[in-house]
Specification:
3-stranded antiparallel sheet; homotrimer; Jelly Rolls
Chain lengths: ~140, ~140, ~140
């Protein structure tokens, strides 16, 4: 078994959900060095997150943003952590609902995703910078 | 260390939450080949998901379905991705809220779950087919 | 590659969100035995969960509790699993929304978290006992 790890930077994105599958594969060609195993991606931030979902129709990405804004609204009376802006506390909540890491199987040296699956970067802040990800792969 | 990976098919389930712990163990007897490590299960779909929760009282499974329908309703005015049916976009959202993979420790060649824990397949579509899972285990 | 696994007990916490990063590091000094790899923590319970989020301002922890109580209310008419108390079914739902395991990269023998990130134990019951976690680390 082998284990390879690398930190990459994903370019600044506007608030919303973005497919980054191609950006990951192009920045991490080492994927083909593991035949059977796992690819794990971790985001080193608390107001952006990662998830796997439909990577075909771009309206899915828009609907994710609309629904998460409904489920985790800004300016709730019960928020105490407000001094970084009205988008900040909702960003933390959305991050934990979606999660800070994803796992995908590696099979025959490639991401073994379903036909419609892709990796989303979920940017929950109005004005964020680039985001740091740590990619770790392991297996045979 | 060793790493073993296999793709299995879970039979078609109706919409709702289903315990599949036994179905997984019976389809993947290789679990006993890893003494200490991890079992990871990944679902290759964007409208069904996996989670770990109470595996004793079947009303918990029903309450999960009721609550997720409340928290992620169908026919919201802000949904744009609607052409695959009113259950489709909520299915994508529920999938990302619950997640496409689960991790469980393997200890002494067995899943090291808590007393009440089991694996749920969460089927979010009204009329789905069988679902493909990739199981990967690694460790000593 | 190597893989090390240990079960630890986290002392009883009151209902709410608690930073346990230091408690984990002090109970599991073996972290430094893996230079590059992953640390995975699994909670063996169905009414408490784990997440990674902001570990600086304690009001974030309070806002998590407030928001999860709003998003997953007690005493909903559709709950059937009610005999263990009004906090029980919401606890199961919150656990699956947040998840029963977290993954963090290990780099140079340390948790490779972002500047503001820490590990939360999310205690969803009114009167819970200590909680069992299984920590597994692997890598080079």
């Amino acid at each position: 078994m082998n284990c390879i790890q690398k930190e990459i930077i994903i370019s600044k994105k506007k608030r919303g959900f973005h497919s980054i599958t191609d950006e990951i594969i192009s920045q991490f060609p080492d994927l083909e060095n593991i035949q059977n195993g796992i690819c794990q991606i971790f985001i080193k931030h608390t107001s952006a997150s990662l998830t796997i979902n439909e990577d075909a129709d771009p309206t899915v990405l828009l609907d994710f943003e609309s629904h998460f804004n409904e489920m985790v609204p800004e300016n709730q009376a019960y928020y105490k952590h407000t001094y970084e802006g009205s988008d900040d506390m909702p960003a933390h909540l959305k991050s934990s609902l979606l999660g800070s890491s994803i796992n995908m199987p590696l099979t025959d040296g490639k991401l073994n995703l379903g036909t419609w699956q892709g990796v989303y970067l979920c940017e929950h802040r109005n004005h964020a910078g680039p985001r740091s990800l740590v990619i770790t792969i392991w297996g045979n």
